[in-house]
Design a protein that fits this description.
The protein is an all-alpha fold. The protein has eight helices and two strands; from the N terminus they run E-E-H-H-H-H-H-H-H-H. The protein starts with 9 loop residues before the first strand and ends with a helix.
């Protein structure tokens, strides 16, 4: 008999149950992540056109790859927001507030399961700082291209020269899966 689970469960697109307060690596499926992230909008949906977390994740991955980092670091970049497939995206100003400590704890535990399922070490300071760099470059690029004009954000890095062209969810899902499969072959 299995041990009781903590919290309630949510149904995922593959048909399984996922317990956000009691995640297990064996319940993490890349197809669920790709599908959900392709339907979750960045910035709480406050972009001039729909832009998914899946497409953002691919951009982060591409920035790391173009900078010459190894496949595991690039994969960390692709998966850096994977917990949002299970608990949604929360805008940064709210997420950073102390009242959101339980949310951040749940996100942390889900990410540990995602990394375990992908055979990545749970924490890797060097790779995590590189992912943070790529995420910030992506943020600057997204602010320029998707926020309807200049922002007054004080961002640490300039935007990437390429222009983001948001794609629909199904295309974002395919881009995410193609990137994941390519990185798994390279490992």
């Amino acid at each position: 008999m299995s041990e009781p689970r903590r919290g309630n469960w949510a149904r995922v697109v593959s048909g399984g149950r996922f317990y956000p307060l009691d995640p297990r690596p064996e319940e993490i499926h890349i197809g669920d992540i790709a599908h959900a992230l392709s339907n979750v909008g960045r910035f709480g949906g406050h972009t001039i056109r729909f832009y998914s977390v899946a497409q953002h994740s691919v951009l982060v991955s591409k920035l790391l790859g173009e900078a010459g980092h190894p496949p595991d670091t690039i994969l960390r970049g692709l998966l850096h927001d994977a917990a949002e497939a299970y608990i949604g995206d929360m805008i940064r100003p709210l997420k950073l507030s102390p009242e959101m400590d339980p949310f951040r704890a749940a996100e942390y535990h889900i990410m540990r399961c995602v990394f375990s399922r992908s055979d990545l070490v749970a924490e890797h300071d060097g790779a995590d700082s590189l992912v943070h760099w790529a995420d910030d470059v992506a943020l600057a690029t997204e602010a320029r291209d998707l926020m309807g004009g200049p922002t007054d954000w004080d961002l640490p890095y300039p935007p990437d020269p390429r222009v983001i062209h948001p794609c629909p969810p199904l295309e974002a899902r395919h881009l995410f899966m193609a990137e994941f499969n390519m990185l798994m072959r390279l490992r």
